[in-house]
Amino acid sequence: SNPSIPYYIDYTVLDTGKHITRSKKHVKWKFGISSPLPFHDKTGPQCRGLEHEIEFFWSISSGKRRVVVDKYQTIHNSVSNAGRFEHGFALGNNQLTHQCRIVAYATAPLLEATQSSTVASSGKTTVTYKPFRQFDLIVDGQSVFDML
Fold first, then answer.
1. Quick one: what percent of the chain has pLDDT higher than 90?
2. Helix, strand or coil for residue 72?
């Protein structure tokens, strides 16, 4: 079998507030999922598959949020959850469905602890950090930022 391969295209975050620009966010992810059909002698753009555009609008001050998937609004939610938003949805058709999830934070620290370990003999603790993603789109368990 030849599995579909997800690939990254683009990501943008715009501050769109009228008076305080950082009070509203417009986040856009673009990614594709290659066709599961064999590529044979195809190269470059010929290997591209179905491409998607996911948009997330968030008024941080009012808490209003909107998700638009391939130009169709999927949710319009005005309930805020203390600076964090998470929304899951399915993308695709009857033959092939992909599970997607947006995870967003109103503000983000620069780094996020990924693991910590303590060495028994010395008692010292080591913490490993990775860059924190204020806005992330996860497709079938994989962040778009980790796609090819």
1. 37
2. strand
